Amino acid sequence: EAQVTQNPRYLITVTGKKLTVTCSQNMNHEYMSWYRQDPGLGLRQIYYSMNVEVTDKGDVPEGYKVSRKEKRNFPLILESPSPNQTSLYFCASNIKRGAWNEQFFGPGTRLTVL
Amino acid sequence: TQLLEQSPQFLSIQEGENLTVYCNSSSVFSSLQWYRQEPGEGPVLLVTVVTGGEVKKLKRLTFQFGDARKDSSLHITAAQPGDTGLYLCAGAIATTDSWGKLQFGAGTQVVVTP
Question: Of all helices (H) and strands (E), which one includes residue A110?
């Protein structure tokens, strides 16, 4: 089954404790991205990657890091989490459909930073 | 500042009624997408509209892209409880890398009661 998986699905942590949220897709997509979703703000892109070893900042990259060592995996790293990073996080992968892109989202990771 | 404004933010209706959700912007988009998100899951793509004035139908859902490609609407006829969810619009802005960039609205929460 074609899918995007994220782990963990839920995480409660404390300020300053480094964490990684994993993301994996089995569709051989080149483009992957991370979003955070906050009430009233919609989905905002954190980082994206157009291919292996190619990453770039999205709209809200501060406090986050990513890496793309393999095509299928795109982990999100919070080196020193803070309470304002409490949010619902989504990983997505894209495929081009001519003039537009189809985006497949993972199930989400709900992060709480105390 | 939200690039895409969705209205209303919340809509509660009875089964069998009709509803319309609006997505407005001052920006021109190369394409516009509508997603539905259910609790505990990631957004799922419903439709992509590309041409100004385009109308697409998906069973009881009708999507329209404005002539100027700045706005869109989603109309549901005879809503059913299964239509309950968060509806998100996302406009694609062309970029030099040809992948484009999606800007999301904050979403409209639709609740259909039996």
Answer: strand A109-113
